[in-house]
Amino acid sequence: MPVVTRKPRIPPSPLPQRRGVDPVRVKLPADGAWATVRDHLVARLKPEPGVIDGMLRDGLFVGADGLPVAPDTPYVPGAFVWFHRDLPDEVPVPYGIDVVYRDEHIVVADKPHFLATTPRGSHVTETALARLRRELDLPELGAAHRLDRLTAGLILFTVRPAERGAYQMLFGERRVRKEYEAVAAHDPAVGLPRTVRSHIVKERGIIAAYEVPGAEPNSESHVALIGHRGGLARYRLSQHTGRTHQLRVHMNALGLPILGDPLYPLVTGPVPPDKFRRPLQLLSRVMEFTDPVTGADHRFVSTRELAAWTSYDSWAGPSPDAADGQ
Length: 326
Hints:
This protein has 326 residues and is α+β, with helices and mostly antiparallel strands. The protein has seven helices and 14 strands. The chain has helices at residues 37-45, 51-57, 128-136, 164-172, 246-253, 307-310, 312-316; strands at 24-27, 80-83, 98-102, 106-111, 142-143, 152-158, 177-185, 194-198, 200-201, 210-211, 219-229, 232-239, 282-290, 297-301. Strands 3, 4, 5, 6, 7, 8, 11, 12, 13 and 14 form a ten-stranded mixed β-sheet that branches. Strands 1-2 form a two-stranded antiparallel sheet. A two-stranded antiparallel sheet has the order 9-10. A hairpin with an 8-residue loop joins strand 9 (200-201) and strand 10 (210-211). The chain is elongated, with a radius of gyration of 23 Å. Residues 319-325 have low confidence and may be disordered.
């Protein structure tokens, strides 16, 4: 009979969340040759000189038992250590996040532009996940997928960690139907509706994705015209694959870059964190799926509007206000 090996159980964090953000968990590698936990943390985290020693003196690293790790604690392969990262000073995103549905298994939120989905880089507490954990008092809330920070609309979160994998699999197996809306220039020479296929590459460290002409397609999007006026048009978009920036890349390839896009067709300079004007005119409008836990059929629709379509002058104006597509 084959031997079944089980994945080692990760002990629960001995540290609470801070402002909706989990502590950092560090697993000591099984093949480590360090004499102490301190030596490994210095080598792995690569902080400024003296930082790790100061944190150890202050008892900021703890083990699974919740007790502080001492500067001379021996290295034990496979052990876990937790600590809280320094939370950056973030400019608050001045728009709320709406909950469109909530039950004991999931939360569906309608995210504004400029709010990241999960903590990453310089966006930590000002994220949809951290906000909802605080506002709904659901510390175990987790994201089933991600939506770009610049894109508004629907995101699915899970309430119970044990069920998160089932909902994540919905997206991994393309069993969620998502419909987007976008505002871009109107060009009657672009025949629509149409399906766009191409080979998209997104390299680590390079901010924009790009297409490789002639390569085997790895992305597919459908683009349809909803309506047009005054040189602008509103488009319905869907994607049958999930490449990074796929809809933005494909709209740009059609000669119809989405309004407010800082990457396509040209990468512009970084936007200051306190500027919330001219948001990307892309919205995750519709989400449909069969619940893998309850079996219920769900259909959710965002109530947000794209400001360049409803009030172009407001969207393009010199200062943000409540009509900025939020």
